[in-house]
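Here comes my example:
=====
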Amino acid sequence: MRYFTTCILLCHFFVWTNVHADYAATFDAENGELHISEIKLMPIGTSYSAMLKQVDLGEFIFKLVDHQPVEITSKSPCFYEIDTGIVSIPAIQVGDRVYEVKLSLLADQADYLYQITEMSIINGNAPNEVILSQTSPKIVIKTPENNDTDEEIVQIYASDETETILEDHDRTDDPAIWLHPEKPLLSTIIGTHKIGGIAVYSLQGRVLQFIPEGKMNNVDLRYNFPLNGKLIDLVAVSDRGKASVLFYKVQSNRLLKEIGKTELAMAIEGYGLCMYHSPITNKFYVFINDTEGMVEQLEIIVLDEEQVSATLVRNIQLDSQPEGCVADDVSGKIYIGEESRGIWKFSAEPEGENTGILVDEVIEKGGHMTPDVEGLSLYYTDAENGYLVASNQGNHTFSIYERAGDNQYLGKFTIANNPDTSIDHAFDTDGVDIINVPLGKKYPFGLLVVQDGLNLSDDATEAKQNFKLISWENIADKFSLSKDTTYDPRNP
């Protein structure tokens, strides 16, 4: 919990060019500004620069005024140790004196309260009585003025996580939860690996199948697709490397079998993907987008008794790159995340309007989201109600909205380090998926699965990416949300 909130802060500082070249940090007493030339996250190795503005001389209080990562340099940077949660500044200049300082988290709260726990003079005279007058000056780092600075970010813990697969790199991206038709405990998680293929996991996180094919990016599924006189469970996956959509059916042994492939009309790689089953026509569709803002809607068709394909029926153009999307099969709406802007809502019918409604936008534009806006998923409580969950990749949080009406914003949470297990936080999340069906004692009111872009091993070193499993009950109780499990995704 401690290093999670700290890392959120240190991952989003910005470059300040007027820093003294000889020191890792400089305090400008005249303007009340603390300039940090380089903060290096350890053991991850990523570097950031920061400028913090002092707002209270007496307590040495600062707030963040902007943010941006920087390239790693050959200088001696400040270090943020993930395993201890301590920020070490080897040399901070205050006037004509230089100090070595360590900052530690003082209290876990929305304001990110810190204190100086160690400070020693490297050179210069006695400590500055004006700037460093207290024994343990408090440091409060807040987000920019137009952020929701008073909003509480609730911490949730994962109950389980998936195994890693690839030896050299494991770049997971998007999950889809498949519900077993008879035995919910045998349900699976289908997850993409964007440099290696697609995997099927048990609810315990064990790998049941891995198909080493393509640069799989996003995945979705729908039940009851008619094929060869039977109703099958159909899975669609976007392949970035071949600008195509691959189709699989879930077999009786829970494993996937490829049953079709469609090349895309878009000139650039296929990226985000989601599926839609129309309540009006009973037709099935797949939406896929690219990095230039193009969204294609394809109708899924049967070629013969064993093969399916898809044909283009509609285009939607966004101003910038989208990825995450999710369709509501009851209301006939599709939600699309434009990474730098927010969440759009369109009609999911092929003849629908191509002008969308902006559900929420990034903080810089007055909304609640932090770019990149990534994974989207729906928790159904009945035909009309439920919740929309969205991943804010830029600050490792997840936003919750009402599914009905104007999609009222309800709050924000993070997946933090579980203090009772070795399961770590979820950072830099891409895809998410939710189901409202009871899946055993761990998930009595449904399951949320999120991609973890910065998985850590037990010794806090960076490991291969994976997926985290979270009980919906934990989220619902924190936000006083419904835990209704009567809606059946197989028979809506």
Q: What stands out?
A: The helical segments are 2-10, 472-479.
